[in-house]
Each structure stands twice: as structure tokens, then as C-alpha cells.
Amino acid sequence: MMVSRSYSNLLDLTSGYFPNFGQGGKKLSRVATVTGALTDLDDENGNSVGSDAPSSVSQERMIIVGNQLPLRAHQRSDGNGGWNFSWDEDSLLLQLKNGLGEDVEVIYVGSLKEEIDPSEQDDVAQTLLETFKCVPAFIPPELFSKFYHGFCKQHLWPLFHYMLPLSPDLGGRFDRSLWQAYVSVNKIFADKVMEVISPDDDFVWVHDYHLMVLPTFLRKRFNRVKLGFFLHSPFPSSEIYRTLPVRDELLRALLNSDLIGFHTFDYARHFLSCCSRMLGLSYQSKRGYIGLEYYGRNVSIKILPVGIHMGQLQSVLDLPDTESKVSELRDHFRGQIVLLGVDDMDIFKGISLKLLAFEQLLIQHPDKRGKVVLVQIANPARGRGRDVQEVQSETYATVRRINQSFGRRGYDPVVLIDTPLQFYERIAYYVIAECCLVTAVRDGMNLIPYEYIICRQGNEKLDNALRLNPSVPKKSMLVVSEFIGCSPSLSGAIRVNPWNIDAVTEAMDYALIVSEAEKQLRHEKHYRYVSTHDVAYWAHSFLQDLERACRDHVRRRCWGIGFGLGFRVIALDPNFRKLSVEHIVSAYKRTKSRAILLDYDGTMMLQSLISTTANADAVVILNNLCKDPKNVVFLVSGKDRKTLTELFSSCEKLGIAAEHGYFVRPNHDSDWETCVAVPDFYWKQIAEPVMKLYTETTDGSTIETKESALVWNYQYADPDFGSCQAKELLDHLESVLANEPVSVKSGQHIVEVKPQGINKGLVAEHLLVTMQQKGMLPDFVLCIGDDRSDEDMFEVIMSARTGSSLSPVAEVFACTVGQKPSKAKYYLEDTTEILRMLQGLASASEQSIRSVSQASQRVIIDRE
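Predicted structure:
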């Protein structure tokens, strides 16, 4: 069986060969690649770097990359040193493997929680690869501290949870050295992925905010890498995110993925809004899939909350230890109703808000004292710092106050458990709790409610332990914050604003007094969802969407552009080529009847330049092209005819089409004609007042009045509000102009109303028909443009090849400006290249005219 070179590396490693992973040592050999500049996909200049040998590995492979490997490490205590490793069953990265299928091989790349001495790293790496198929990234301690405790926990994590660094105590001010550490660690992870990847075959799935720039490093190395990213934290609104100094770098890095996953639509919406406001990218929804077009690549957006591992939970529920613990708790809390909270001890989990609400419940309902207990399990915080200490101090003080105020002998209203619990012990608390409370002020997902639902469903053993009738439907109640990721999927929960203490108190009270039947209905609804949308379902769904998103990779031509974290890949149709000047000049010389259609703004002249005069070089070139009797040259523009007349007054033989083809003039001495007969423009009296209304209410928008059209432009308005207003205006105009002979269209920052049938394609049709009527069947057609309006011309001339308006042997050149998706087959990079190419054609014409003139003179001399 043939395998890719990188896959062979793994086989070599497991058979005993293992190079040094230490610093300065020999690196694991990577996939052989083509060096040099990135060019076309054509075989002799392969641009998208891939494996050097064709892979015939039948088994699909997924490389899962996370900050930490799903492993537990224990240093041996036998005195000989070394490490023992085992799977971390609680790790999501390990649990998701169940959803990928048995035919998918999984390789893990990540760091270890424990610091491994450099002298042991080689042995550890070999053991992990052979035994667990894990590739460890050994990060120097100082660098890891800056990366994780610095940038991740001081900058990204607070900001993504809506905490702005308004003072040095709140999250910490931006530190460029911490950002550099973040980038450096992401680069180390990328190197580790590159050591094992077979880029033509493998899928890569990157997890969470620790590795947000990793997609750029991988895409830069392998243009066609099949890459997914899932963000497990919230993504903040654009107003919060835009404060991040490296906001563009992170957005562009994420857009180097093929699929980006979020837990909720809110998180996805915030991300898309940031892409719109900061990068000018708009998204589209097609057949249920949301996507962004980014330099010809379609970046898909996935919205699906992660689930729990059903098998793991059910196996723990079956343990004898769990059963005995449930019996113990049943006896301990006999005659009392248990409310349960399970949270990390950090500032975003809202533990103190929950305690204040419970305190208020006991104040307002004295009858519940002695009957209701709040058990709060407080897990150690993942971060560190003064904020964690403040949360602990406030929690302890509040618990102490409540217990002193309402406690009595044998009854503590609040039971705070801040020591580590075994998993089965936590499960037992779920089983006996009548209601679970999650009052986090911001949380990416939070699976506590899911675990609670499954545990409340229980099993036969636990029914016996609780002395329940197995035939009676199970029941549960949830009070959840509306600011956590799992909230939208729990439609039967009581959703609360955790900052509103009164509302949380009312929710607690309602959860206690609601009827048994309603508790059962809510539980059944939740159990049905949670049990079918587990972690395996989530992983399988993500992989399916990633496969769909990468389906067209092979047939795309790719170019890598940009430096550093600004790198991106342009993906285009395989038939798209850069126009060779030599090729087109050669075709030009051997043809005798030529049609040339040229856009002006953005093609012959940069759009960014504000000028009242035409480009002098362009005018000279146009005049030289027009002098050739074999040529018919038309300039096609969206500008009005008055402006174009003034700009090109010196081009007497140049044909001009103004206002996207509504007005046409074959040369300077001819009168303007209209391509489409329009009786009058009375519809402007209907459309203009509507546009004025939207202009007044949309700061930064303007109306451009043309003879044939009205254009509402919102380029300088707020992007979101402008886009929203544009949609409303479009609907409004379509409604009031429904019976008028006009078309209402939206474009890049515009809404335009113009007579039906007016587009640049009309000019191309008009030119070809006119030439045919004069007996000039074109055998050479050149059309150049830079934006969407020019695509109509490209479509007309490309389809004309199969009709009777062109010579059967006609050479057709549809050329766009820049490398981007287009109906054109060719491109040139910019205005400079276009003018250089047109100069080549003009020089050929001058040479041809000169040759004809000299030949004519020789004939006259010979006759004399």
C-alpha cells in the first residue's frame, strides 16, 4: 500500500525510529514541498503545496488540535523517573472522537499540563505517538505563561466575556509582548501539525480561542488544507471586539479556515458583524448554510451547541459508588428540597448573584426556611489573579451571612462545597436536586444543565436508591441565565437575567411551586433534545459540514498573497488565467476585424483617484487603437455623458457608452443614441422622494441623480445600519414601482433604479450586431472591466462564441482586473498592467499602419 510521506513518518516512529524533538535537534521530516514563489496550479508550477507522493490511504484522518492534549500525566514514584499517561475521559477532544466514526483515524496535537524536562521530551513524545497517537507541543514555561496566563487569560478571555480593560485591574491593558508570545505558540503548534499532516487527505480541526491564528500558519503552508475551527467561548459584539488592537489579524486568521463553528447564532452574528464592519465582508445564506466569500474562497459558518458524552455519564450513573452516594445524600437531605449550583469560582459564573437571590427567597418566603437548601459546588477557577480572590471572598462572606441569618441546628440554608469532588459525587448531587440553577453572567456554552437532565433521568438502580416508582415519568427544573450558550437549546427552562436579583428569586420560587405534571413535561422535552444532540452528534455534524465546505478544493486554483498574519489565499476557477501580453498581441496581429470594449473607472484609471481630466497615457493609447481601421473601440462607463464627453473630447473615433449603456455614441461627430426606448422618466418623481426619506434618516448616505437612473449610495454610512436601510429601501422601491418599467437593484453599497434592460451587456450586444450588419464579422474581441457591472459584458461576449455574431475562428478575451471570481477567463493585476497590454496592441497597430503606408508608397513609386 502506498502512503503519503508524512504518513510514513508516523509508521517510522512507531517502528522505533524517532528523531530528536528537543530544541536545536533534528526535526521530524515534513512533507516534501515545492519551494519558491507561489504560482499557478499548473503542474509545472504547483502552487498549493501538497504531499510529494500520491496518497492511497483509504482511512480518513482527522488531526484535532487543542491547547491541551486529552491526557492525564503522573510522574512515576518508583525512583527511576519517567511518566505514566492515561486518557482524560473528561476531555471534550477525546469525547468527540465517538462522532467521527470508526473509519476515521484521529491524531491529537496539543500541549501537556505538566512541565516535561527537556531531557525527557524525546521519550515522552515517542511514547505518546506510539500509544495514544498524540503529538505533544513542548512550550518553554516562560513562553507558555505569557501565552496562556498572559494573552489568553488577561486579554482574550475577559474581552470575549465582555470585560473591557478600562483600568489595569480589569483584564489588563494590551501588551504587545504577550501578543507576540501568543503568535509564537500558535506557530509552534503549526509546526507540530505540519510534521504529521498529509495535506491532500487529512482534515484539521482546531479548537478554541487559544489557537485563533493557527489557521493562517497552516493555510500559508498548505493552500488547500481542509481546515475547521470551533470557538468554545462567546464571540462578543462588534462594539466590544473592535477595541482589540489586533482585531483584524484575528479575524483574517479565522477566515483562513474553511468552516468556523459557534455554539449559538448570537456568537455567529457578532462574528459576521465584525467581518462586515472591519473587513467590509458580507455574508449570504444559501439553502440553509451561511457563508462568507473571502477572496474567492467560501468560508462556511456552523451553528451548533456542543453536547455531552452520554456513554460516560450513563456508565458513572451505573457505578455502585454513585448509588451509595445518592442514598447517603437522600438521607442527609431528608425532608428538604435541594437546589443545586455547579460553577467554577470565577467572576463570570454569577455565584454571588445566585446567593443573593436565594437570600431574598428566604426573606420573602419564611415558610421555605428549613425546607429549601442551596448546594453550591464551587470548582477551582481556571485562571488566577485578584479577581478570583475577590470572588472567593465575596462568596464565603455571603454564605456565612445567609447561614448565620437563617440557619439553625441541623439546617444550613447554603451548603458550599469548594473542595474537589469525584465525578460520581457530583453526579449524585445532580440526581437528588429538584432544580439546577445556572446564573452565569457570560458563558460560552455550560454543559451543567445537560448533565443534570441526564442524571435526573437516572436508571433502575437509582430509582431504587431514591425509592421512586420506575413507571412514573421523571421530572426536573432548570433556571438558566439567558447569557449562556446552552440557553437557546433549553426551551423548557426558566430563563433569567442574572443581574436582576428579583427575577432570579421569582424563578426559584416558581421552580419550587410548579406542578408535578409541568416538571415532567419540561424534563421530557429537555431529555429528548439532550440525549439526541450529544457530543457524538455534534462532532459528526461538524465533520459532515467540513467535508462539504472542502469539496471544491481540488478543482480550485490558489494563490497566496499578503505577509505575516495578513496572509490569505485566493481561490479561483481552474480555467482562470493571467492574460499573457505576448499571446494577445499575437492574436491581435493575425486578426482583421476587432471589437474592443473597455471599462474606464478601475480599469483605465484607478477609482481612488479624483480627477477631472482623463489619464493622458490612456488617451494616447485609445487614439492609437482607434486609428487602426480594423478596430472598433468602445469605452463603457457608469458616468454621465457630459462628463465622458469632456474627458475624451480629443478621442474623435472613440465610441462611448454612458450610464452603463443607456446612452451610446459611435464617435465624437455622432449624436448620442439610446439603446432602450424610454418614453419618459416620470417614475423618478415616485422614487426620488422615497430615496430622500432614507437619506435623511441614514447619516452618510447620498443620492446620485443621472439622466437615466437614480442611485442611493451608503458607502460612508454605518455598515450595519446602511445595509439594513438598503434592504428596507429596496423593498420600499420595489413596492411603489411595481407597475413601472424599471428595475430596482442593490449593489456594492448602492441601491439603483433604472429603466428595465439597461446594463453594460447591452452595449456589447449592440456593438456586435452593428458590426455584423456592416459586414464586419469580428474575429477578435477584447473586453476589460473591474466590477460586477462589467460581468454582463463578459457574459455576452463569452456566449457570442456559439452564435452567428462572431467569426467561427474568433479569438475572445474577457479580462477582469485583479484575481477574483469572475465570468472572465483572464485577469491582469491592475491598471498599470492593463495600460501596458493595451500599449502592446496599440504598438502593433502603429507598426501595421506604418507597414501598409510604406507598401502603398512603394506601389506608387513602382507605378511611376
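Summary: Residues 61-139+185-303 form a domain with the Rossmann fold fold (CATH 3.40.50.2000).
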